[in-house]
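Retry 2 of 3 after timeout on previous attempt. Resubmitting structure tokens to design endpoint.
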């Protein structure tokens, strides 16, 4: 890992007024612990993850000390193909209150995001098929959408086979033709206000060997079928990053899978607790899962 010791009280708790403005920003790295999957001697996950249990589950996850490095001074140096994540500037047509309406998100935000991803990545087809809104604590009673807490486990949102099945499910008759092209699943993560508490963090894909990825079930509530996801086992040399004070016009594109060889195929990620920011306002964010295709 990028560090072996965590000191939870390195800095006093911050207030919004005490934070440096982004224009004079110096890198804000921090130390924390993240939940990696526990594995058997055969390399199998010791248990499924459970929807709604966003913190580690002691019998099947282990907390590992890590250092999270701030990319703000050098964010242009990181790319999807090399690192598995990228920060894109994009001013959406949505206002914060627009996200209270689930149908408005689908009608307005989805096509807005699809056009941005096409332009940023040179893609020929983009399909946004799902979204989640996350809030660090209490849901908004005025919202028609379901709010989910940040997820503090190291994971990838799907599996290689799961991506193919998702394409077939959502794109129907087009799927067979599109699967002959280069295809990818990307998570587009946007804050609904500047984020200091519980930021999304990215594990540099170039520091994670293939054998670290562990297929894992995600158990769903209310008798719904379980989902397929990918966990990550602890290893040496993992490098973690985030964007300090990520604002509403800064979208993190995080790769869940890419069919092309020779590129970073998937980027593990996790929400993380910065001890210095625990007393700040709750994080509010939207993540949209996107199917992306290129004429390659």
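Retry 2 succeeded. Sequence:
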């Amino acid at each position: 890992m990028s560090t072996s010791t965590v000191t939870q009280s390195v800095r006093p708790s911050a207030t919004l007024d005490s934070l440096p403005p982004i224009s004079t920003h110096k890198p804000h790295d921090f130390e924390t612990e993240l939940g990696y999957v526990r594995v058997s001697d055969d390399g199998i996950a010791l248990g499924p993850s459970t929807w709604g249990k966003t913190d580690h589950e002691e019998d099947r996850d282990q907390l590992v000390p890590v250092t999270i490095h701030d990319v703000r001074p050098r964010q242009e140096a990181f790319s999807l193909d090399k690192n598995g994540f990228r920060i894109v500037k994009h001013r959406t047509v949505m206002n914060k209150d627009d996200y209270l309406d689930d149908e408005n998100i689908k009608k307005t935000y989805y096509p807005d995001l699809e056009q941005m991803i096409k332009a940023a990545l040179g893609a020929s087809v983009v399909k946004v098929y799902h979204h989640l809104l996350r809030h660090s604590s209490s849901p908004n009673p005025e919202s028609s959408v379901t709010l989910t807490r940040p997820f503090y486990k190291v994971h990838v949102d799907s599996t290689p086979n799961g991506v193919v099945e998702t394409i077939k499910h959502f794109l129907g008759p087009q799927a067979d033709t599109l699967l002959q092209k280069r295809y990818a699943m990307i998570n587009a993560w946007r804050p609904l206000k500047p984020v200091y508490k519980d930021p999304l963090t990215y594990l540099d894909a170039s520091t994670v060997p293939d054998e670290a990825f562990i297929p894992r079930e995600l158990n769903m509530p209310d008798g719904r079928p379980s989902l397929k996801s990918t966990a990550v086992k602890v290893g040496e040399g993992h490098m973690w990053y985030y964007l300090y004070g990520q604002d509403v016009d800064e979208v993190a594109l995080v790769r869940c899978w890419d069919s092309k060889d020779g590129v970073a195929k998937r980027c593990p990620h996790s929400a993380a607790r910065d001890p210095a920011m625990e007393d700040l306002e709750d994080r509010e964010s939207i993540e949209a899962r996107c199917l992306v295709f290129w004429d390659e």
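Attempt log closed. The mean pLDDT is 88.
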